[in-house]
Amino acid sequence: xxxxxxxxxxxxxxxxxxxxxxxxxxxxxxxxxxxxxxxxxxxxxxxxxxxxx
Length: 53
Prior knowledge:
The longest helix is centred in the middle third of the chain and has 11 residues, at 25-35. By secondary structure, this protein is an all-alpha fold. The chain starts with 24 loop residues before the first helix and ends in a 9-residue tail after the last helix. The chain has helices at residues 25-35, 37-44. The model has no long low-confidence stretch (mean pLDDT 76).
């Protein structure tokens, strides 16, 4: 599989179960990075810093 934007590499497993530990999550993390979702969330939502009060 092609290397994505995030700093991880895909590895092929020798299992024949056809399942992965991450269930396809890395592809969605690449998508979030490419579309700038994190920056958009930081810009448009007010997130409280610190723990619960």
